[in-house]
Automatic annotation (TrEMBL):
It comes from Oceanobacillus luteolus. The lineage of its organism: Bacteria, Bacillati, Bacillota, Bacilli, Bacillales. This is NADP-dependent oxidoreductase. GO terms for molecular function: oxidoreductase activity. The keyword Oxidoreductase applies. Its EC number is 1.-.-.-.
């Protein structure tokens, strides 16, 4: 089968098209004919050797996948050939940038007919991260609170804005050029961080800072004394936070199929918007361009590869 791979750790230019064996289907696995795969910053971290694990060689990146069931293992009971499905699988397994991927049944979910393959694959890591940021125990965003979302127009940010609004928060979100998009997602105030001195202008405006881009220490002044801040990216300075009694934490998302089912249901009902910046073809050039956009930090929402 066709796959777009990286032989070893390397740059965007090192992606190449090749033929690899179709994955084995174990007794509890579902073989998915891949239709779309959404890419994530963690893919680039894996490719650059910045994670505490390594994929096999050649590396096939991608874990947020949608497609059609092609084969099922003998113990699989909830899926049949022809079912439209999606999954967010372990990042240390990869496999998405290929024509087929074999996934344990417990990680596979059915896709509603009125949700596109592109939308389904663009949930995954980004939506899970955003939801777990907004609803983390003791940091949970509550109705009436003001939440400052740093990086509001990115993959995680677009979901964070929506989940915070679902919790009843007043949302302030930053962007460099996607003001209308953030307003359409429900942001009450949109801040162009290139045009305003954010820490000064918005000092003490937020009960909660959710930093999706790794600049939380610089933006900490927006949080009121005794407030809280959370990030999935670079850690926030404990010393800076302690000066004003601000609680801080850093999360690593967890796979939760119950949450993914809730998200896909909301998308199906029109209660959650999936923002996709670009859909690229499943070619060496297409994959390279997709990761170039991802690593530029300027994508609005998610980036998807259309495999089929």
């Amino acid at each position: 089968m066709k796959a777009i791979v990286v032989e070893e750790f390397g740059a965007v230019e090192d992606f190449m098209e090749t033929e690899v064996d179709r994955p084995k289907v174990n007794d509890n696995d579902v073989l998915i004919e891949v239709h779309t795969v959404a890419i994530n910053p963690v893919d680039s971290a894996i490719r650059k050797g910045r994670m505490p694990f390594k994929l096999g060689s050649p590396m096939i990146l991608g874990t947020d996948i949608s497609g059609v069931v092609s084969e099922v293992g003998k113990n699989v009971t909830d899926f049949a050939v022809g079912d439209e499905v999606f999954t967010s699988y372990k990042v240390n397994r990869g496999g998405g940038l290929a024509e087929y991927v074999s996934i344990p049944e417990k990680y596979v979910l059915k896709k509603p007919e009125n949700v596109s393959f592109e939308e389904a694959s663009a949930l995954g890591i980004a939506a899970l991260t955003a939801y777990q940021l907004v609803n983390k125990e003791s940091y949970e965003v509550k109705a009436g609170e003001t939440v400052f979302v740093q990086g509001g127009s990115g993959g995680v940010g677009t979901y964070t804005v929506q989940f915070a609004k679902q919790n009843g928060a007043h949302v302030i979100a930053t962007t460099s050029r996607n003001e209308e998009l953030l307003a359409s997602l429900g942001a009450d105030q949109v801040v162009n961080y290139k045009e305003e001195d954010v820490p000064k202008v918005y000092a003490n405006k937020a009960d909660v800072l959710i930093d999706t881009v790794g600049r939380g220490t610089d933006t900490l002044p927006v949080v009121v004394e005794g407030g809280r801040s959370l990030t999935p990216a670079a850690p926030i300075s404990e010393d800076k936070a302690a000066e004003r009694n601000i609680s801080i934490d850093r999360i690593v998302y967890r796979i939760d199929t119950g949450q993914l089912n809730r998200f896909i249901d909301q998308v199906s009902k029109g209660d959650l918007k999936v923002i996709i910046d670009e859909v690229y073809p499943f070619t060496q050039d297409g994959v390279q361009k997709a990761y170039e956009l991802s690593e530029s930090g300027h994508a609005a929402g998610k980036i998807v590869i259309k495999v089929k």
